[in-house]
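Section 5.1 Outputs to date
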Amino acid sequence: MRSIIERATAAALLVVCAPILAVLAALVRRRLGGPVLFTQERLGQGEMPFRLRKFRTMTDDRDAATGALRPDDERLTPFGRRLRATSLDELPELWNVVAGDMAFVGPRPLPVAYRDRFTSEEHRRHEVRPGITGWAQVHGRNRVDWDERLALDVWYVDHRSLRLDLRILGRTVGAVLRRDGIAGSGTATMADLPADRADV
């Protein structure tokens, strides 16, 4: 029942936000070119992969010598920074809620490449659907280091309730208005989860 209500609410929000989505899509196309949406395989509930959708905020600039993508802070444009600062880049994730891949509240979905980097306890963050916002997001977002962030995710799994979700949604509004924790320390986004930290 909870999933049905969330999916119906997300569908209604997509209709209401359609003009905003159209304007943002046009601005992204004009400022960054195509594609308008950034899509990436993320880990969902049960660690099943799904394709997350967000508005694109970075260019595809690559190093001339190696062909590798340049660091995030070099590819993130002023327009992209504004989108991230207001969290408007996250609006297309409503489609993921409609599809049942995500919830409004839950641990943020992380890249599939991180699957083997979690400790056994941290894997428990995938017992619930990932969310557009979550307990870690209202406790510092990208400013919080990985150990604390993942511990907060597991705490949420153990204490999940409708009352807690409503509390997180309320605090998310304040965090967005304050533009709290948009970037990690020394990076334009969030540092990668280290590859050598999982327990055996």
